[in-house]
Description:
By secondary structure, this protein is an alpha/beta fold. The protein is about 45% helix and about 15% strand. It has a six-stranded mixed β-sheet, sandwiched between helices.
Amino acid sequence: MTPLIQIENQGGVRILRLNRAEKRNALTHEMYEGLCQALDEAAADASVRALVFAGSETAFTAGNDIADFLSNPPQDDDAPVLRLLARLPRFHKPMIAAVCGPAVGIGTTLLLHCDLVVAADDARFALPFVNLGLCAEGGSSYLLARRIGDARAAEWLMLGDLMSAADAHSAGLVNRILTAADVLPQALRWAQQLSAKPPAALRATRALLRRTSRAEAEAAIKAEADVFRELLQSDEAKEAFAAFLEKRPADFGRFT
Length: 256
Ligand code: COA
């Protein structure tokens, strides 16, 4: 397992912690690979009753590592990022996210698959896919509107601005806002609480909550991946990525 994903157990709770602070926990294909493996192990291990996703106290994740994405673009469904996204709606145990600092791209779409989300008052959320010449991923073209309504979903996915913790809380993406130091402890308290519940009843309730959305989420993930792969080859995306790497504003004026 890559050291960029740290795995820890606390009773029946498994904590998956992103560990690449110097790059704001931006996710590389190696990290997606590690997360896939960690999810499979957690799913298969009966002693794991709940999962907590965490970053550091200053960053949840800056989303896809843009440089790594350019060197290792997802070519087919076997790409680590697409394998991870396919696993999220199928994972059958409670998932809780502890979010401090930025939660960009998949850092926000991952939350749509979590059962509970606690965020720091300094947390920031963004879905800058369009700004990068790309499209929604992780089922967000369906799950975001379901969660926060059509108007806000259009705002988040089309404008791609950074949203505050207060915005995310009032939109219904986040259950609770606390100070950064209290975020992980709260996520662990919830996870311990869930771990002590009768597991069959909890599993059944969770499955019922997702009864109508799971198939839709899986269909959205597939449809998004097809468009995403195509857009990744586009000149618009090339300009957006070059601008990011060169630390300059992108110029889409020449595109029609
Ligand atoms: N891919 C690759 N590198 C990234 C990255 C990403 N998604 N996000 C941040 N980094 C790198 C920066 O290039 C910088 O590297 P450097 O120190 O070698 O110059 C380092 O991480 C720190 O980033 P910085 O922008 O200085 O941190 P910040 O705290 O000021 O801002 C963010 C944090 C997340 C708001 C900002 O980094 C950002 O907007 N990143 C891009 C997010 C994005 O578009 N993700 C893709 C989603 S699909």
